[in-house]
Structures are given as C-alpha cells and as structure tokens.
Amino acid sequence: MKRILVTGGAGFIGANFVRHLSEHSDYEVTVLDKLTYAGNPASLAGLDERRVQLIVGDIADAALVDELVSRHDAIVHFAAESHNDNSLSDPMAFVQTNVVGTFVLLESVRKHGVRFHHISTDEVYGDLELDDPQRFTETTPYNPSSPYSSTKASSDLLVRAWVRSFGINATLSNCSNNYGPFQHVEKYIPRQITNILSGAMPRLYGTGNNVRDWIHVNDHSSAVQAILERGTIGKTYLVGADGERSNISVMRMILEYMGRGPDEFEWISDRPGHDLRYAIDASVLRNELNWVPEFQDFGAGLEHTIDWYCANEAWWLPAKQQTENKYSKSEIVLAGESK
Ligand code: NAD
Ligand code: DAU
Q: Cα(148) to centroid of ligand 1, in Å?
C-alpha cells in the first residue's frame, strides 16, 4: 500500500488522520473533499505537497470517484455530514452524502478491487442508561436515534453487504466522540471554548447529565492506521479510550481551565431525541491489534485543545458567527437550572 485516498480529509478527523499519516507512514495521500461548510483546506496547511494532494469534489460523483479509486491502493472513507443538530433541521444532505455517497464509493471499490476502510460512529448503537454496566461491543444491535446516526447505520450496512455479497476487502470502525484541534466550532467542546474566547456564554443542552465517551483525535488516527494495515477483512472494530464524562463535568473543566466560574454558562432547551449515554468497549481492538491510546489524561488533552483554539483564532473565527446564527434559530435559553 502506497497510495491512499482519504475522503473527507479536509474535515476534523480526516485532516488529523492525514497529518498522522504524514508523520507515521510514507504513504502518498489524495484527499477527496467537497469542502462543505465543515471542510477547510487550512486544516491541511503546511503538509508536504509532494505527498498530500487535495481534490475538491463530491463522493457521490461516480465518474470522479471511479477515476480516483482506479489509481489508489486503499480508500479511507471519512466524508460525511457529521452533525446531529444539522440532521434535525436538514436531513436530506445526510441521506445524499452518507448513504448515496458511500454506495458510489462501494461500487467503485468493487470494480477496482481496492482496499476500503469505512469510518463510522458509536451512535449506530443508540444510547445506554446512565447506570447500565454494559458498554457497546461489536455485537450490540443497531438502534440509531437521529437522522445523522440512522444514515451512518445505513452506510455501515451497505459496507457489510458489499463484503458478504461481492467480497470487497473492507473493514469498518465505529468510534466514540473525538476532541482535539481542527474541530468545527459547531461541536460541543470547540463551541464552548470559542464562545468564551469571543465573549459569549457557553451553552449546555438539557440536564447536562448526558454522557459522551471522549477520545483524542490522534488516538482515533492511530487506531484507523492499525486497522487499515493489520485488521481482519470484513470485521468491525470499536474505537474508544475509556473516556466517559457527563457534559456538565466537561463544561466545568473548560470553565475552570479558562478562568471562569463553575456556573458561567447558559442552560438551553434539550436536543430532540438526545441520546443519553455512549460507552465503548474497545477490547477487540486493544487485544487483536495491540492498540493503546496515547492520550489517557483527558484533562491534559482538553488543555492542549483549549491552547490550540487560543492560538488559532484565524482558523475558527470565519465560521463562528454563521454557526451561532444557525443555532440561534432553534435554541431556547432557559431561565435558571434545567431539570
Ligand atoms: P466533519 O464534519 O468535520 O468533516 C466532514 C468532511 O467531509 C468535511 O471536510 C466535508 O467537506 C466533507 N464532505 C461532506 N460531504 C461530502 C461529500 N459529499 N463529498 C466529499 N466530501 C464531503 O466530520 P468529522 O467529525 O471529521 O467526522 C468524520 C467521520 O468520522 C464521519 O464519517 C463521522 O461520521 C465519523 N465520526 C465522527 C466522530 C466525531 O466525534 N466527530 C466520531 C465517530 C465517527
Ligand atoms: O459519538 C460519536 C459522535 O459524536 C459522532 O458520530 C458525531 O459526528 C459527533 O458530532 C458527535 O456527536 P454528538 O452529538 O455527541 O456531539 P456534539 O458535539 O454535537 O454534542 C456533544 C454533547 O454535547 C451532546 O450530548 C450534546 C451536547 N451539547 C452540544 C452542543 C453543540 C451541548 O450541551 N451544548 C452544545 O452547544
């Protein structure tokens, strides 16, 4: 494997993965990215142009995809509409990119016999109760809640069917919530940091008791590289780093690290259908591929992330106002503490 096509490589996780490959491999990388509102070529700035090339285009463009797939050894497929809140207001783009786009890629992979790795999410499994001792495993039944997660579940099922029916050389991974540099300001952690930096109040949905299982994006990248190079064809791997935290506890860590009081945030009406808790059991990945996450200390990773947003205002500021304008159309600020 020498030439890798990375779809969605100008997005948050894709760009971090391309950066990771630049440091930890000698692959040549082509990024295929439509540069939606979530894609930013600046996230690839500074990389060696002899090894990383950006092609602006749509994964649902069959002719473009076929030409690109035919001259690569492997595809890592990150491209997606990725934000739950957007999927509630405008689900069509999610069906088009996440389902139709993945179908177009699979047909080309089938034709050219190219290695394929599909990136997915733990949200395909639905949610867990706060006190449930179980975590998600590779055999947990699919039960997605939102338009976003249902389109990701659909894309996973397409990949599994193409493996079984057509014998394509594919693997899948379902990861928990990523954090780190280059994440769009619509997402929870960057939104709160950049609200504080721009003089606005951070915003917490519902009770704040919802739990997410945080993993540093660099650990997701090392897991994907391990699966790409050493994973068993046809298999699904869950990726997570034992990082369960309630939203309110993450909020208070951000406030503390940024010198604010513990209650300097606003309570917001809850997200419709809001998943309560995600939790990943990554033992298969750890035991079979000897993968170990590097960022075991969430507090230290969060402080690095805050430092990155403080030092990179030019990267996030252009998207900030538009993002907050979009949120202001649906968000209701609650008086006092939400229950
Ligand atoms: P993102 O929204 O930051 O980036 C998505 C990228 O895909 C953008 O660069 C965008 O321009 C591109 N894109 C969108 N539609 C496209 C199309 N039709 N053709 C080509 N490019 C297109 O998303 P992210 O957070 O980096 O997520 C990447 C992948 O990882 C997604 O598949 C997502 O479901 C999955 N995932 C994300 C997380 C997380 O915490 N963010 C966790 C688990 C899995
Ligand atoms: O679990 C993996 C998933 O994690 C990925 O598949 C998705 O692509 C990714 O966006 C993420 O989904 P979430 O919905 O969990 O992430 P988000 O950053 O939107 O929200 C995290 C939590 O924070 C969630 O419980 C909602 C809450 N929230 C979010 C925002 C934007 C707030 O309380 N306030 C906010 O302003």
A: 11
Long-range contacts formed by 311-314: CB under 8 A, 24+ apart: 312/181, 313/197
**How high is the pLDDT of residue 335?**
74
Write down the catalytic residue from 123, 156, 244, 275.
123
Ligand 1 pocket test: pick from 32, 44, 81, 82 the residue with the most ligand atoms within 8 Å of its Cβ: 82
Task: Express each pLDDT in 275-313 by its tens digit.
Answer: 999 999 999 999 999 999 999 999 999 999 999 999 999
Q: Which regions of the chain does DSSP assign to beta strands (E)?
A: 3-7, 28-33, 52-56, 74-77, 115-121, 170-175, 178-179, 203-205, 211-213, 215-216, 236-239, 244-246, 266-268, 333-334
Residue 86 CB less than 6 A away from ligand 2: no
Instruction: Report how many domains make up the chain.
Output: 1
Question: Does 13 reside within a domain?
Answer: yes
Question: What's the mean pLDDT in 256-278?
Answer: 98
- Report the pLDDT averaged over residues 186-194: 98
Q: Is 306 inside a domain boundary?
A: no
Tokens standing for residue 322: 């538009």
Please work out whether the CB of residue 191 comes within 6 Å of at least one atom of ligand 2.
yes
pLDDT at 336: 63
- Hey, how many other C-beta atoms are within 10 angstroms of the C-beta on 92? 10
Respond yes or no: is residue 122 known to be catalytic: yes
Find the CATH number of the domain harbouring 9. 3.40.50.720
Establish whether residue 184 lines the binding site of ligand 2, counting it when its CB lies within 6 angstroms of any ligand atom: no
